Request: fold
Amino acid sequence: MAGPVAVVTDSTAYLPAALAAELGVTVVPLQVVVNGVSRPEDIGSGTEITFDAHDVVSALRADRPVTTSRPSPQVFVDTYRRLRARGFSAVVSVHLSGDISGTVAAARLAASEVAADGFTVEVVDSRSLGMGLGFGVQAAVGALAAGAGPAEAARAAAHRSLNTSIYIYLDTLEFLRRGGRIGAATALLGSALTIKPVLALADGRLEPLERVRTTQRALTRLLELSIAEVSPAGPGEHDGRGTSIAVHHLSAPERAQELADRLREQLPAMGDVPVTEVGPVIGAHVGPGAVGVVVSRPAGA
Reply:
């Protein structure tokens, strides 16, 4: 009889360690390089020396160089083989957008290698990040718990992530510019470094959406954009039931909590709106002060 199917993701899903353990999800960390020192992104395991969000915020504010890199394919090979040795029959491996990181490419190379051993790994490019990826991971876990096979669970993860919208407010585009991850936002650089940019994740890439003059206006726009995702016809048309929303930030807990409170007030049937700080990989590119909202709609929404 076939064994259970494992779910793997990477650290940019920012699943709390306790939740990842509860779901039985294996988390592979990306690498962070601060001032020439490379360490894994902190995933809350406490088993090795890592970089966390505080480390990166301190480095960015001190103008020390911060870069990030994907896990090597061998890290994924080792991860998949360990899971096979534990009795898993296959793996669903769900990762952040391939247009942002080479992580999913490394996972695919590893999947090809272990396939030669007769072990199946379904790799999913979520085209998302943060809880946009995390909601996809949870969809895969849920599908497997309901009796789905690896391919069906991979489709469930992809569908949920692709049915997710992300809007991000940044204090500045400077950190995205440094990391080379702003795509079409390059056109805004002449003036955007002195105003407040709002970006959206579009087809796996961060793209400019609007420019606003104040932080408060930016938070209001994040609220308006989120409500429009849940209820396109306006407030009251849809109360948010079945939709999952999460708020992320980097070194801006008050801003993030304000946004979450306003979302709960406007969409009372939606339930909890978790507020979490992103880790150093995403944090290195968005910079301190960033706030993002993730809206994940159910199937058919």
